[in-house]
Amino acid sequence: MNHGVYDVTSHGHKADPFRLTGASRRVLLMALLSAVIAGLSAIGLLALSGWFLTAAAVAGATGTVAAFNYLVPSAFIRALAIARTVSRYGERLLSHRAALTGMAQLRGQLFGALASQDSRTAPDLSGGDASARLIGDIESLEDLVVRRPTRPANVVAALLAIGLTLFAGWPAALALALALAGLPLLLRRLAERLLRAPAVAAAAAQAALRIAWIDYAAARPEIIAYGLGDRVTAALIADAQRLDRARAALFRGEAAVASMQLGYAALVAGLVLALAEGGAAYVALALLAATASVEAMAAFARTAVRQASVEEGLARLAGLLALDGTPAADITAAPMMLALGAVRLAPGDRVAITGVSGSGKTRLLEAIAGLRPAVHAIAIGDVPIDSIDAGNLRAQTALSPQDATLIAGTIADNLRLARPRVTTTDMQAVLHIACLDARVAAMPAGLDTLLGEGGGTLSGGERKRLSLARALLANRPWLLLDEPTEGLDSATEADLVQRLGGWLDATGTGLLVVSHRRKPLALATRSLAIGDCETAASLPDQSMPAMARNR
């Protein structure tokens, strides 16, 4: 599966599953070049400084200062210092640019894949769980990109250090080479031992806290109404404390790894000093080059420290990485016959679904819309609904549900969910049908008015009408309405029913409507009892008064 900026090549959480492509790959190559220059400059600067200072001291002690050329080494030291600073800044800037750009695009692409899943078989994720994966878990992958340029660059820098150590003899250079070769393996084993369990615990605790926070935030009206604030606060504090304990253990492990690296650097320096041969200046050069090379290998230490957290994030993302959905797009399809039980509905038919509360009317509409598996006998174009893929099912139906769901964006953003390239004129037209045009026009920003999560300042009836306008804008063969006038006053309800009836007449759109109020039922020309959607008995046309009595 290709995610644009990331090419997913493996779903195993033990391996790096991303290979940057396109512009992000070119940015990372520039970061690699900067990292190589920074590593070489750092090794060269420290080694040359050690040689220069020692050689100058020897020249002063032996009275040969006049013969010592300090201008050329000084110029090289200054140049290396500038190169190290500039290239290190460039490496950090470019690698983080590639990482953050890639992470942003990956979030959008994974969200798109998740949103386009067949709701009947999609992963059962709460809003909090999905947010934890798309935000927290993807953030843990930053090191996969940020550390990528530094690892090969530090290997090049280590090779330079080994070469410089040869000035103090091959025994010292060989000892340094062996010490540097064993360092990554030692760091990985130490990180596995000290950091694996804390990293897993911290990732799980952070995800749990994020899930709880988002889920409690969604239920804040009920929490306030029933005085549950103290209980919810206590639960969140307990989750936060678990996260703090896990992170504290992780930080202790990281400190232990850092201390080991510091001790390892001292050991290597002592070993090189013991084996070094030649003059004092070359011994100083080798000693400082060796010390700098261990520091250069810090990228492997940081990778080892972060690897456990990265792998845990990959494990949690594995389900999303495997998703492959149909991209959202303008969907057009020829109207098809709809069969409910033994009753066949031709395109353009208008039917009221009747039954007592709790009998399954809402479930029937949601099943026709593809939001959940069907428990009734439903077919579209003589094909059982369970055999129809999600894309073809979406092409036939547009649902305005009983509980209107709105995104935290503008009014226009919410309408564009139905048709991405919709025009302002089309949006205003459906808002008029939904009796919401005057309300939107009175807002200072109009269609660009920002709505908070769940509809923000819109009333329940206004959210309902915005959901209806969105369903009209989809322009699908079958319109599914679940309690379309709930929360409206009588005058607005009558106006909406009249406008909606005119739209149905003009477009020839089929209608399935569920309502416990009488006026919306006037939109239908026949009724169908919910129980008949499971039987072979056909249902004759009924008049509106009779239909109302059957409710």
Q: How many DSSP E strands?
A: 12
Q: Major beta sheet, specifics?
A: 5 strands, parallel
Structural class: alpha/beta
What sort of overall outline do the alpha carbons produce when their principal axes are compared? elongated
Q: Kindly, what is the distance between the CA atoms of the first and last residues, rounded to a whole number of angstroms?
A: 50 Å
Give the proportion of residues in helices: 55-70%
Structural features, described:
- It is built from 19 helices and 12 strands.
- The protein is α/β, with parallel strands linked by helices.
- The strands form 3 sheets. It has a 5-stranded parallel beta sheet, with helices on both faces. Strands 5-4-7-8 form a 4-stranded antiparallel beta sheet, with no helix packed on it. Strands 1-2-3 form a 3-stranded antiparallel beta sheet.
- A hairpin with a 2-residue loop joins strand 7 and strand 8.
- Helix 2 packs antiparallel against helix 3, helix 5 runs antiparallel to helix 6 and helix 8 packs antiparallel against helix 9.
- It is elongated.
- The relative contact order is 0.09.
- The N terminus and C terminus are likely disordered.
